[in-house]
Amino acid sequence: MYEGEYKKPKKYHKIPTPFSKAQLQKLFESLENGKISMICFVSLITGMRLSEVLTLKVSDIEWELKRIVKQKTKGGKPRVYYLSDNSIEILKKWIVLLGDTDYVFPSQNNNLNYVNPKGFYGEFRKYLKKSNLWILDYACANNTQKHKFTFHTFRTTFCSLLINSGVDIYTTKELMGHSKISTTERYYIYLGDPKLKEGIQQVFGRKQTEPQKKDSLLPQQDHNTQDPLKLLQLQLVNNQISIEDYEKKAEILIKFNHL
């Protein structure tokens, strides 16, 4: 790089944070508006962005094939979203409640138009606050604030559920509609927390077959331990035998092992 040459700053990539199961439950319990609840539900089960959900038409749903086909999404490309049996049934009931309408989420003012994104997000933000999920993540240099959870978090959570259920990276890429595998890889790095934690636990964690007693910090006896001397040591530490008994039995075991 030459002196004085302009260097384009690296683009900041926010680490994606999904909703936990407890947070999802708390959020959905706070959703008093049925339409908003359904919009959130559709995003969670398909990974759709807000604009894709709000512009969803009844004609986009292929009931027999259990999928949604949108001819134009982000990037101008068509997308297919697959639906489970339960999701299909819930959507059918919702359409029946709506009656004759073009859009799955029509505007209250005119059934021929869909819900206004700005108006929706203003309402959705109220429920995030009500659920104590309106959490400041960081503040930008231009005084704008970014929050940890937004409506896009449903898409992140969809991806997290796929990854941690064992869905491979290429299938996840297609279900998320990523144009590049590198985008999916970033999700894999940060959303595979349970698997990563399981790996750490296997290497560095303390394995127990019984729950630790709350009133004791002493190690509990591991019934899977095959070494008699170790079992004897655990019994001593847990005050299950006296020092005299331990010394007698340990001496016998040591002699036996040297025979």
Approximate helicity band: 40-55%
- Mean of all residue-level pLDDT scores: 79
- The structural class is mainly alpha
Let me know the largest β-sheet. 3 strands, antiparallel
Low-confidence stretches: 212-225
Query: If you consult CATH, what is the topology of the largest domain?
Result: hpI Integrase, Chain A
Shape: elongated
Number of helices: 11
| CATH architecture level-2 label of the largest domain | Orthogonal Bundle
Q: Termini distance?
A: 74 Å
In terms of quaternary structure, the protein is: single chain
Q: Structurally, how many domains make up the residues?
A: 2
CATH class of the largest domain: Mainly Alpha
The arrangement of helices and strands along the chain is: HHHEEEHHEEHHHHHH
CATH homologous superfamily title of the largest domain = Intergrase catalytic core
Describe the secondary-structure layout.
Elements: H1 21-30, H2 34-46, H3 50-54, E1 61-62, E2 67-70, E3 79-82, H4 85-98, H5 117-130, E4 136-139, E5 145-147, H6 153-164, H7 169-176, H8 181-191, H9 193-204, H10 228-237, H11 243-257
Antiparallel strand pairs: 1-2, 2-3, 4-5
Helix pairs in contact: 2-6, 6-7, 7-8, 10-11
What does this structure look like?
The chain is elongated, with a radius of gyration of 28 Å. A three-stranded antiparallel β-sheet has the order 1-2-3, with no helix packed on it. Strands 4-5 form a two-stranded antiparallel ribbon. The chain is built from eleven helices and five strands; from the N terminus they run H-H-H-E-E-E-H-H-E-E-H-H-H-H-H-H. With 259 residues, it is mainly α. It has helices at 21-30, 34-46, 50-54, 85-98, 117-130, 153-164, 169-176, 181-191, 193-204, 228-237, 243-257; strands at 61-62, 67-70, 79-82, 136-139, 145-147. The protein has two domains: 21-195, Intergrase catalytic core (hpI Integrase, Chain A); 206-259, no CATH class. A hairpin with an 8-residue loop joins strand 2 and strand 3 (79-82). Helix content is 48%, strand content 7%.
